Amino acid sequence: MKITIDNRTFEAREGQTVLQIAKENDIYIPSLCYHRKTGQAGKCRACVVEIDGMRGLQTSCTVAVKDGMKVTTNTPKVRGAQKLVIDLMLSSGHHDCLSCEKNGNCELQDAAYFLGIEKASFQLAEEKPADISSEFIIRDKDKCIKCGRCIEGCNNTVVNEVLAFGDRSSETEVVCDNDLEMKDSTCVQCGECVQLCPVGALIDKKSVGTGRPWDLEKVNTTCPYCGVGCQLTLHVDRKHNKIVKVTGREVVPNDGMLCVKGRYGFEFPSSENRLKYPMIKKNGKHERVSWEEALDYTAKRIKEIVDRDGPDVFSAFGSGRITNENNYAIMKFTRAVVKTNNVDHCART
Ligand code: SF4
Ligand code: SF4
Ligand code: SF4
After folding, report:
1. Ligand 3: which of 44, 150, 154, 167 to mutate, most ligand atoms within 8 Å of CB?
2. Which-ligand-closest: CA of 32?
3. Is the pLDDT assigned to residue 349 strictly greater than 70?
4. Whose CA is nearest to atom 3 of ligand 3?
5. Rounded to whole angstroms, how far apart are CA atoms 205 and 246?
């Protein structure tokens, strides 16, 4: 079918919404509670538009397209309503973009910029203490706009069922289990809620103060931890040659989701404790040696021990962090050279 948005005609498919067609065609309509993964929400009402033949303003994230539909996103009435919604969101929290971790990557900030809102017109809310109790996530309740994306993600995407809305009316807030601190809740720190949050209300703790989004190089890669092959983006501080943050890529097989290791276990590449060369313990102390010496020594000792006690005293462990080919070589070496079946792999848990 065909629909018209701001006098331009676009192709649309049955079941799509007006907002989806606008997004597909790079027409910006402020929207905060909608995310492809969490689906239609119709909560924040920032995405209102006018549609010919329909009374009042319509939330573009919930209206299904119809052939011949005519949509307008930029009348004074639409802009006025969008402005009020965003202004009230800013007013019902405490938004200090200068020091906010989300600065430069915040959907509320983008909407305010687009609509020309410099600061909140009202101050409606008391400040609330942030929940910094958990290992990897900061919950800054002052910046929450109650869009519900984190709740949808936790319950329906990763299905950990930790988050919900608690209390009512202006007191409504996102709670963990029965309003526990995050560290005491059943949260597994997967960070899906952080990734889905459009504002700075959920923040990766380890990344605070480590660099602005525009200063970090983004490198797409595969998670090195297990065989699922989750796709992720490393956020790299090139000046210090360090990974400072990890986000999941919304492609197969993980569609943005990661586990706690993939998302938050990113320090090892730049760890001071990392082994960078072979060492042999001599007189009770590890000493750096050449690869030739290390390999000759290891081969000699394996042969001595296996000749003396038989092949089953030997066992080898492969690793999820090396290639299939390396793991294959370990298996072949253990079975064909040493002649034992004592070979295993860390990913077998
Ligand atoms: S959450 Fe967004 S709007 Fe609020 S302070 Fe942070 S950057 Fe600014
Ligand atoms: S980190 Fe994962 S388990 Fe914990 S609240 Fe967020 S989505 Fe739920
Ligand atoms: S924490 Fe973030 S994702 Fe969750 S309701 Fe608040 S603003 Fe939305």
Report:
1. 150
2. 3
3. no
4. 197
5. 12
